[in-house]
Design brief:
Blueprint (H helix, E strand, L loop, with lengths): L1 H22 L10 H22 L38 E10 L3 E10 L1
Helix pairs in contact: 1-2
Amino acid sequence: MKISRLISGTALALALVTGAAAIQPAAASDRLSPGAAAAIGVLGGLAVGGAIAASQSPVYAAPVYAPPPPPPPVYAEPAPVYYAPPPPVYEERCFTERFSEWVPGWGWQPRRRTVCR
């Protein structure tokens, strides 16, 4: 910050000295070319602009209200739940039984029956 003020102050002083020298009447051979005069004018403008910019105080933005963030989530381990185990499931096992039966007057006959346990 101080370096920019030093440089801008030096440039301002240089521009003022150059401007004061240009006010004095000069002979035709002592005058500057149009390009050099334009360059000196640009440098003077930059110096004056730098001096104006350096003299102003910084501008701060107005504070913006932001609501506070929500609290972080809290993990709570659930309480253990005890319950009676389910009753056992009994499954009937069924199968087909094949056998032969003696029928009087006819002979042996094949039979089937379903047995479930």
